[in-house]
Amino acid sequence: MPEQRFVPADFVVPPSLAADGFRLEPLGPQHNDADHAAWTSSIEHIQATPGFHERGWPPPAGLSLAENLRDLKRHASDFEKRSGFTYTVLDDAGEVIGCVYIYPSRADERVADVRSWVRADHGDMDGPLHKTVAAWLASDWPFTKVRYRSGA
């Protein structure tokens, strides 16, 4: 029986997404300081965003920069292995304002489980981010089922 893949072997994973007021690029170790600052400034806001509280992320006590770096390296490895895709959300000035996670559902690997967060001081971006990413998933990705939870 062939191995179940999250995306087909011949699928070209989008390297980015540009939208009005923000852009997405693959999250990696180069974002560590800015990513850490973004989410640690907004723990309560992120935990109130659907899809995060039940996963226990972010941890109320935070993570060290070294722990965050390990997490970013894991996300980058998942991206490279095509087992999950995490994008950082950057504003027009290139500042990290959030993240988008695209992973197989824990309950059904045929379903893309998508979550996103934005910094509390960019809470007004939840709706536009959700709308833009949902349309992108429908038009540019091979998923037949998507469950996208956000603060929108």
Protein described:
This protein has 152 residues and is α+β, with helices and mostly antiparallel strands. It has one domain: Gcn5-related N-acetyltransferase (GNAT) (Aminopeptidase, 3-Layer(aba) Sandwich), CATH 3.40.630. The protein is 30% helix and 24% strand. The protein has four helices and six strands. A six-stranded mixed sheet has the order 1-2-3-4-5-6, with helices on both faces.
- Structure classification: alpha+beta
Look at the structure and give the mean pLDDT.
92
Shape category: globular
CATH architecture heading: 3-Layer(aba) Sandwich
Text of the CATH class: Alpha Beta
Query: How many H/I helices?
Result: 4
Q: CA-to-CA gap between the ends? A: 40 Å
Strand content: 15-25%
Count of structural domains? 1
Count of individual beta strands: 6
Instruction: Work out the helicity level.
Output: 25-40%
Instruction: Evaluate the radius of gyration.
Output: 15 Å
Point out poorly predicted stretches.
none
Please state how the strands of the largest beta sheet are arranged side by side: 1-2-3-4-5-6
The SSE order reads EEHHHEEEHE
Q: What does the main sheet amount to? A: 6 strands, mixed
CATH superfamily: Gcn5-related N-acetyltransferase (GNAT)
CATH topology: Aminopeptidase
Protein name: Twin-arginine translocation pathway signal protein
Organism: Streptomyces angustmyceticus
Short structural description:
The termini are far apart. The chain has helices at 32-40, 43-47, 65-81, 126-140; strands spanning 17-19, 22-26, 85-91, 96-104, 111-118, 145-149.
Chart the SSEs and their pairings.
Elements: E1 17-19, E2 22-26, H1 32-40, H2 43-47, H3 65-81, E3 85-91, E4 96-104, E5 111-118, H4 126-140, E6 145-149
Parallel strand pairs: 5-6
Antiparallel strand pairs: 1-2, 2-3, 3-4, 4-5
Helix pairs in contact: 1-3
